[in-house]
Prior knowledge:
20 strands; Uridine Diphospho-n-acetylenolpyruvylglucosamine Reductase, domain 3; 20% strand; globular; 33% helix; Alpha-Beta Plaits; 16 helices; 5-stranded antiparallel beta sheet; homodimer; 9-stranded antiparallel beta sheet
Amino acid sequence: MTAARRFWGWGNEGAGPNAEQQRGIARTISERFSTHEGLRPEPRIEDVDLPTPRVTLPAALADFSRADPLSRAGHTYGKSYRDVIRALRGDFAAAPDFVAWPRDEEEVATVLDWCGSHAIAAIPYGGGSSVVGGVEGRREGPGALGDGYTGTISLDTSRLDQVLEIDRTSRAARIQAGIFGPALENQLRPHGLTLRHFPQSFEFSTLGGWIATRSGGHYATLYTHIDDFVENLRVITPTGVCQSRRLPGSGAGPSPDRLFIGSEGTLGVITEAWMRLQDRPRFRGSATVTFDGKDGFARGAEAARHLAQSALYPANCRLLDPGEAAFSGAGDGTSAVLVLGFESASHPQEEAIQHAVECCQDHGGTASTPRIQQADDRSTPARDDAAGAWRNAFLRMPYARDVLARMAMISETFETACTWDRLAEFERAVRHAALDAAKRIGETATVTCRLTHVYPDGAAPYFTVMTPSRRGSELEQWDEIKAAVSEAILTHGGTITHHHAVGRDHRPGYDAQRPEPFARGLSAIKAELDPHGILNPGVLIDAPETL
Amino acid sequence: MTAARRFWGWGNEGAGPNAEQQRGIARTISERFSTHEGLRPEPRIEDVDLPTPRVTLPAALADFSRADPLSRAGHTYGKSYRDVIRALRGDFAAAPDFVAWPRDEEEVATVLDWCGSHAIAAIPYGGGSSVVGGVEGRREGPGALGDGYTGTISLDTSRLDQVLEIDRTSRAARIQAGIFGPALENQLRPHGLTLRHFPQSFEFSTLGGWIATRSGGHYATLYTHIDDFVENLRVITPTGVCQSRRLPGSGAGPSPDRLFIGSEGTLGVITEAWMRLQDRPRFRGSATVTFDGKDGFARGAEAARHLAQSALYPANCRLLDPGEAAFSGAGDGTSAVLVLGFESASHPQEEAIQHAVECCQDHGGTASTPRIQQADDRSTPARDDAAGAWRNAFLRMPYARDVLARMAMISETFETACTWDRLAEFERAVRHAALDAAKRIGETATVTCRLTHVYPDGAAPYFTVMTPSRRGSELEQWDEIKAAVSEAILTHGGTITHHHAVGRDHRPGYDAQRPEPFARGLSAIKAELDPHGILNPGVLIDAPETL
């Protein structure tokens, strides 16, 4: 199950930087930010004080559930900065009373039935990688559970972990929702297929979690969100199974799938999906373009916009500002860097990367010589260039973030999207909001920005904020920065989340953003499908005041 | 307003085949099908017997409403075969009591308020081109209005017809929903922009209608449905204005827009949308590929599948079976024909069409020499090839259909979609279902098929059925064929509609297809947003039994 996973932070026990590397990170950061908080040791499960369960494990669920400390502590939070800080403090007040690992749909239904008859909140849990409080039985604040529940359980889908059926002709597969990214790709690889959806959490998140949260993958254009890969869905709601028809396209009323995609466990438990797959790419073309000078990021953004509007559909089109580029080793800190990549299973990408590079040169960029990989070139292309450096840093990031959390450094990311016409002002406003909030706290911050996804009509800017904090005040300081940034995002026409989802942390922004009639409609569906209000209460919709 | 429109059939008065051409069509068809029903004259509004209005025009709406016979008759039906036959018979029993043409959102809200307080059914009407009974106040049968309404009005949005704002940087425009296709493109053209969404009904349908019905455009791959072009929506519901945020992408809960896209006027009246636009194409590449022999269509479909899975994204990839090819003049009736086209605003399409042609040759196709249009070639490419022949026939089709209806020939199309693994059996089953139904009636039928859209995971087959009927029995015979085809579509894993929408005609199939919990959810939203049940009752959801 999750034996090897860290109960308090990112990833697996023993993975990430070793003790010496941790000290190195701490030293570098201490010097750079003049902070003197030492590196707090990793917490141990033996020292964790869990609340006494309010319900005992019922016989009907005993076969596939556990109430041991490691299971409960490991399912208390997701993996946000707030979560790690609370775990480091030993605060596990929100721990579920037990964790259920249903082995099939019948057991999922049994859990929901039991919860419905006992006023127990059921929190669906895939990989637990939420960074927005999506899997937490929070007792107060935004998205809190109501007082009416007699208990809270975590419904872990990770035993539903198989690729059940592959349709090679249509390039699709029927897949259980609890499967993790690497297992999914491993089961598809022998067939020459890939889902080609790689969120940063890939290793520690599940297909069902991706669908429930409208996950964003690594690729920068065309099919960015998981939404477009869903061919059909099977969802266990408290009032029945909802299975849509497997179709390549349809015009029959509002899409049933689009209602459950992004429903974040509030309407049902996603158990299976037919997913659209792709052939494994064989042709590649890549290049790195630097944009110098004070307006480097702005010119890079213009180039990215033209590329996004060109119908060339680069797989990668990621613009790093000078700070991001330096941090990840993709640049020297003086220039913005655009990481460009094309890939295809069927035809050479030489012409595409050449067009893209010319477009960037038209905007004053300096391009590396494109690297071309043809079908007959069986060697894995070396990853020693800027793209490779960036990718490695990207995957290491969450582990490093936990080291920073242990020394009371706030290191947080804010992701959003806005249309191109607003982008320049938007980026300035969000940057200033974060810097100002840090200054009010009395600290110096660095704010860096990258564009993670580019669309014909806009981009997804992703901000990283780093600022020292004082041990014991991290959450309040984080909250202040988060509130300031969220306000700037909404005021300047962004979305409160491009791909991290809403959860509980984004509730205030989400409530402000969504149209009021839609909110009422969503509550009406929730009441119909989940009449006892047991599913992930507080997420997207307020928990009922009385049950 | 709609003065020049035919009240009983397709298009404008005086447009379509002239009297001599009509007689020519009739002669050809009579010989081919050995039918002897003469060509009934076009009906005249003076001869139409409309039911006495049940409500009189209220003062609050008088400024922008009319109850004259032409307005009422012209808003009684959509443009399906059933609709034309009933109009030819002078059956206007379902006529609305009056037609309102609100000039702004306030007047839309006034209409809805008035309907809510008087138990009047309000049927939103864009261009009125529905071929599924979507704009009809039907009294009995599937999708019928309940008995509880004291009257029915048609809410015509055609005065909301302006492009209000253009954002050239993000390539998007804020557009009123009542605008017709040609006016929309005319207002965008000076900016070098296009929505590039061309359903067959383009000339006589509106943006709001496209969005409400999940319209499918002319282009065969990538962005086929209007869904993907919607950046945000503004909808007047009976309980408030629902406006979503203008965003290039978002992961904030289930998409609000996707709830209203395809809602077919049951949840609110769409008044505005920010739509994603494209630069006008300057580079083109096209070719026609024939696939000979008995398995020509099957091999053509395999070629189309490989193209759809190649990420080349042809603008046109339309496979005609030998009968379709002959009918439209694109072939001689012995071969299947694949019409291929690429276009781009930014880069030459020579390589793309070359790859596509090679792929077709690998599947045994014989390709014409590709026609290439480069940016500096300002001449409009000639349309004298198979693609051009097909396109002209495509646009003339609905006019010709009305001539056939006047001679009691059934000429109907059935559109659907299914995954590639099912396609061959699916196509056979639907063909046989139509032929068998015609045989039961005692008539010979021709059934032809084309693939209108191709997806990586499936295709959209479009069937045309022609069979003589007996005057007076057309509707019963049509119903029998429609029921047989619909059953075959659902049994063999298709969708009851790929882009014609559900309306009232597709209700039985839609009810069988949609997941039951989703149906309950949709009814719950409807009750919340439209508590008096006035909006397009019977479409998607049963009208309430009591109001």
